[in-house]
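Dear Dr. H.,

I hope your travels went smoothly. While you were away I took the liberty of generating a structure for the chain from your last submission, since the lab meeting agenda had it listed for discussion. I wanted you to have the full record in hand beforehand rather than looking at slides cold. The sequence, exactly as received, is reproduced here:
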Amino acid sequence: MQDYDEIIKNLFARHQSVQNAGFNPDSYKPGLDRIRELDRKMGSPSERLRFVHVAGTNGKGSVCSMLAASLSGNGCRVGLFTSPHLLDFRERIKIVEDGGCRMIPRDSVLEFLQKYDSPELSFFEITTGLALWYFDRCQVDIAVLEVGLGGLLDSTNIVVPEVSIVTSIGLDHCALLGDTRALIAGQKAGIFKSGVPAVVGERDDETAPVFEAAAAAVHCPLFFADDFDFENCLQEYLAENRDDNRPDASSVIPDSIGDLSLDDIAARMDLKGEWQSKNLRTVLCALDLLGEEPDVEAITHAADITGLHGRWETVGVSPMTIADIGHNPAALKENFARLRAEMDGGEYDKLLIVYGIMADKDLQGILPLMPLDAEYFFAAPDTPRALPAAVILSEAKALLPSAQACESVSDALLKARAAATPKSLIYVGGSAFVVADCLKFLQSSKND
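The corresponding predicted structure, in token form, is as follows:
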């Protein structure tokens, strides 16, 4: 068999990916005609499978992971499609069942590419087609699909799901989706389908009218997780005629679900961060609309069950080292606030931050959020899209005069470790690429 690494290298060479090349006419091809034709050639797996479709600015990966874990805990074989990958392309396409997951086999990737690869397709269209083809082959009970970008014109939007989800709305990819949260919400709401319940993770004055109008236009029931009555949900699980009892979207969430509060469940989860309580609300709402009882134990171990990396992940101890792929102002605001809370707790004596960013991201919007009392080690990850470390340093030097530019993420991590004490806290983030380079370095260090 052809060497798998060579297969993937050739795939990336033939098809520019947004992950590596950024948004250009070759890497980003909005529209559904090409993926629909590919789906037809594959025998229309999009029409045979059950789906949950997940869009949003932040939280998509965590919500997909929790949903897949809980559904698998209920005995389902779950297809899980997410992006980007950090170490292996196959991380994007997994089967989750029996308390664990497996990535798509290498020979299946090769078989699909030999049959269906076409130069007219974008990298993400090929990847979406591969996921649909493989999930159909594995006869999954349900597939959880994460939107790549936006929603309306994303290649995943050929499916008609059983539940549509929008996790959150923030300012990201503004050149493509719009420069206001309302405009971005309109693109995300493009996944709403006629008669299919839609869940929105948060209600706010700017985006709620957009979602309400979009839902009305396609005649789909709309639910805001902020408003959902989980107490009634649990009572309904005990009812004999479950399908005859639908929740009241105008009700107010109580403080508890079963014998545990939402915060109690979130605190037990291996997906860490205060924002995971918001994601948990969204997941529980979606599960109820699917008629599935939440498997709380599976949800608390979602990252381990689904192999999800880079979400406030502990990648080292002594000094404690946390890695997170949050990259836009909304995500980093929460991450930096979490770091501030960790330092205020008194457990750590020094905060060191390894940070890098893509050239198309809002550095000026992020710099004011950065903790001023941390030591910074700026680095450009190994991708052409990265902003050079020297440029970050130039932009940040007035605010962070002690920061330094490093040759690579591994160099930055080594320098942060050298400056740390056993009680220091090191944070690695700013981009999925920074986290990927960190994980590769740590993996290679273990193997040496």
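Two observations you may find useful: Residues 196 and 220 are 5 Å apart (CA to CA). The longest helix spans residues 329-344.

With kind regards,
E. W.
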